[in-house]
Design a protein that fits this description.
Blueprint: E1 2-5, E2 13-16, E3 22-25, E4 31-35, E5 51-54, H1 55-65, E6 98-99, H2 110-122, E7 148-154, E8 177-181, E9 189-193, H3 196-203, H4 207-233, H5 244-270, H6 276-282, E10 285-289, E11 293-297, H7 300-309, E12 314-322
Antiparallel strand pairs: 1-2, 2-3, 3-4, 4-5, 5-6, 7-11, 7-12, 8-9, 10-11
Helix pairs in contact: 3-6, 4-5
């Protein structure tokens, strides 16, 4: 026996009480999905209805399985009272069965749908009201203004630095962090999250540093070469009969001639000032310590995130200040 099942807020479907099959008519068309769930497979919610066919084919299949004539399924513009369609799947004129490209999904299985219908009829369903939590507004990704800082003062000398945003531009941070030193101990400080781009900017060398480093290596190579040539000219090494002692002497002169000048010259090049952009990113955080601990951030959006993460320790409000040296630390 076929019965129409009405479900609130869901499409109506026709159910066979004998085989537990369900038939759902597509929206605005003359096609229907059909399928059934075996009791041995309770977790088949997403593969309930397998195939597409016409309502006429469904009627023909039903007629072939019944001993008595039954009323035809209603269909717009179709008179099925005298349908002479052969049994489903037999004969060359049988309607074509279309496999769907993707298995249709259902919000729940037929068993759960029956329970839902029964509960709806008994009035036992009491849906909980849907609640929405407001999303926290996040500042836009932006480069901070030079010369501006936003200070958050905390009552104690420990703080939580939010790690979900770059402290300089609010992009997604990279795994590595920038160590901002604090106090007399050079190993003590706060690890500030930066994105990959800001990390490159913070570690970039200025043109003067790159040039000085290149000159240091070339000078060291030149000095090492002069020492080796001098040893050969002085006759310390017999090039006609080079032994292990001669090779050791050449290697020692080469390493000493390159290593010592390179260390001295590279040390001088590292003391050259970085570029303004590098100093700007490295100084994205300044820390002042007195009776309390003040954190001065260049990016206002990150300062607000920092304030929220340390709200219980905060003294006063977020305070904007202006620096005399916009690029300095």
């Amino acid at each position: 026996t076929l019965a129409v099942v009405h479900v609130e807020d869901l499409p109506d479907y026709v159910k066979c009480t004998n085989c537990e099959s369900a038939f759902i008519l597509s929206q605005g068309a003359h096609w229907a999905m059909f399928g059934s769930i075996s009791s041995d497979y309770p977790r088949t919610e997403k593969t309930v209805l397998k195939r597409w066919t016409t309502l006429e084919a469904v009627q023909a299949m039903a007629n072939s399985e019944r001993a008595a004539e039954v009323d035809a399924l209603p269909s717009e513009g179709a008179d099925l009272s005298s349908d002479s369609t052969p049994p489903f799947g037999i004969g060359g004129d049988s309607p074509e069965l279309f496999d769907s490209e993707q298995a249709p999904t259902a919000p729940f299985g037929l068993g759960e749908l029956d329970d839902f219908v029964a509960d709806s009829a008994n009035g036992s369903l009491d849906p909980a009201p849907m609640t929405f939590e407001p999303l926290e507004e996040i500042a836009d990704v932006s480069e901070p203004e030079p010369g501006q800082r936003y200070v958050v003062t905390l009552a104690q000398k420990t703080a939580v630095l939010p790690s979900e945003r770059c402290a300089h531009c609010l992009r997604r941070p990279a795994p590595r962090k920038l160590l901002v030193h604090h106090g007399p101990d050079p190993n003590h400080g706060y690890r500030v999250p930066l994105c990959q781009s800001c990390h490159k900017r913070a570690s970039a060398r200025s043109e003067e540093q790159v040039t000085a480093k290149l000159i240091a290596h070339l000078s060291a190579v030149l000095i090492a070469g002069l020492l080796v040539v001098g040893a050969l000219a002085a006759g310390w090494v017999d090039i006609t009969d080079i032994g292990a002692r001669d090779l050791l002497l050449i290697a020692t002169l080469g390493l000493a001639g390159y290593g010592l000048p390179a260390v001295l010259l590279l040390g001088r090049s590292s003391r050259l000032p970085p570029s303004e952009d590098t100093r700007f990113v490295r100084s994205t955080l300044r820390i002042w310590e007195n009776e309390a601990l003040a954190f001065g951030w260049r990016n206002r959006g990150y300062a607000e995130l920092f304030l929220t993460a340390n709200r219980d320790l905060m003294l006063g409000k977020l305070m904007p200040i202006t620096e005399d040296d916009p690029q300095g630390s």
